[in-house]
Amino acid sequence: MTDKPFLNQVFSPSRFTKEELEKILPKYEQVYFTKNQFLLTEGKTANHYWFIESGFIRSYAIDTEGNDVSTNFYAVGDTVIDWPSFFLRKPSRENIQALTDCVCWQLDFDTFQSLFHSIEAFREQGRTTLVGSYFALKNHSISMITDPAKDRYKKLVSEKPEILQNVSLKQIATFLGITDTSLSRIRKEIANEI
Amino acid sequence: MTDKPFLNQVFSPSRFTKEELEKILPKYEQVYFTKNQFLLTEGKTANHYWFIESGFIRSYAIDTEGNDVSTNFYAVGDTVIDWPSFFLRKPSRENIQALTDCVCWQLDFDTFQSLFHSIEAFREQGRTTLVGSYFALKNHSISMITDPAKDRYKKLVSEKPEILQNVSLKQIATFLGITDTSLSRIRKEIANEI
DNA sequence: TAGGAGTCTTGCCATAGGGCAAGAAATGGA
DNA sequence: TCCATTTCTTGCCCTATGGCAAGACTCCTA
Questions:
Q1: Each residue of A26-67: pLDDT tens digit?
Q2: How far is the alpha carbon of B49 from chain A, nearest alpha carbon, in Å?
Q3: Which of these, A163, A45, A28, A172, lies nearest to A103 by C-alpha position?
Q4: Would you tell me which CATH number, out of the four given (3.90.25.10, 3.50.50.60, 3.40.50.1980, 2.60.120.10), belongs to the domain A5-128?
Q5: In sequence order, which residues have a C-beta less than 8 Å from that of residue B161 and are 6 or more positions away?
Q6: Is A72 helix (H, G, I), strand (E, B) or coil?
Q7: Is B131 at the interface with chain A, CB within 8 A?
Q8: How far: B184 CA to C16 C1' (Å)?
Q9: B12-71: per-residue pLDDT in tens?
Q10: Does the beta-carbon distance from B144 to A144 stay under 8 Å?
């Protein structure tokens, strides 16, 4: 196991037995993505998911007018997955793209299924990750209704500071549900608050 | 099994064996809620979830200013559950309230766990339900950014027509992220479109 | 190292939706 | 069946954000 230190963080020895880890860890494959490379594109059915060992990733959807809307940002340690596409086995509505060079660990659906149905701790952890995603999405969704754009921006930056280095203003703006023009003005206001 | 026709719809004989159904169905308990009764309140940890056999239910959160924001509406056949509270075993951020008298079938967490870990088809179905909720929430979230309020209202009414009979204008408005005043004007516009 | 593509800022004006308050309509008890 | 309460509508004006376009800045890359 010592040859995969990153995965040993993801699968804590306190939650998994040594035998379980020996079944799980070898199944993950290290893969590299270069800046701007796509991990998944709209219309394809996701057959993998990834843990990010290093790098930064964005997912986005294309709306009816052809504009792209950022749906999520993923940093080191995050799980990158299109849940509906991966589990419902249907074409993705989103694109997932590396914003920097990345090192990831990937698993395919069939292997996931066999681990999921044979190892109780594995499915507990998987379910927890999914519910955590659901919770984050719901909080963001409520925040879109109750909080002004400036507050949402501040919260986003405090939670994922890497975003400032890796993501364009426009891509951040669509995640917040505003235009790049408005976000530029909000940034100016925040600068003047000091 | 014939004494629980509703549950036989939820657990299709094509996905479960006879033996599995005999383990699953007796665990669900029929419960009644009267109009305005709470199924779950903020701060409590959810220990049950429900299938709705009849009735209509709303969930909502309270924002920092004390306003309530509708987060979901549940109709006949829907699964009513606070995913993060139920699975992460932490206090709920939401309230779930019956908007009409309801007949539901409930299951508690411990029983869920034993079925989840012992019956493969049960966990597949549970996972599918959760991913379906995630998908619906994400679509709503994207719609909040890309679609005008009028379109979101039309979509909501077409998907859950019962909402018109059971939910006040204000409670619908907060779900759409607008005020009751604005929704009233939108309704008027729609009426004039005819 | 200059040109060009993308990115960010800024000004001008337009618009969707919000805040408030008054009145109208519906609803629900007693 | 009548009153009280809640819900819904409407008018007035305001604010946050959008749309567009020009200019500034950055950063590739030939």
A1: 999 999 999 999 999 999 999 999 999 999 999 999 988 888
A2: 15
A3: A28
A4: 2.60.120.10
A5: none
A6: strand
A7: yes
A8: 14
A9: 999 999 999 999 999 999 999 999 999 999 999 999 999 999 999 999 999 888 889 999
A10: yes
For the four alpha carbons of A72, B150, B131 and A31, in that order, the dihedral sign comes to: negative
- Answer yes or no: do B141 and A144 touch at CB < 8 A: yes
Q: Does B187 contact strand D, using a CB cutoff of 7 Å?
A: yes
Nearest 5°: phi and psi at B121?
-65, -30
Look up residue B184 and give its two tokens: 């009233």
Cβ contact A45:A90 at 8 Å? yes
In angstroms, rounded to a whole number, what is the distance separating the alpha carbons of residues A52 and A146?
Answer: 31
Choosing among 2.60.120.10, 2.60.40.1240, 3.90.1150.10, 3.40.50.1700, the CATH entry for B5-119 is 2.60.120.10
Q: Name the residue in chain B with its Cα closest to that of A123.
A: B117
Nucleotides of C under 7 A from a protein CB: 6-11, 16-21
User: Mind giving me the DSSP string for A92-148?
Assistant: -SEEEEESS-EEEEEEEHHHHHHHHHH-HHHHHHHHHHHHHHHHHHHHHHHHHHHS-
Model pLDDT for residues A72-131, shown as the tens digit of each residue:
999 999 999 999 999 999 999 999 999 999 999 999 999 999 999 999 999 999 999 999
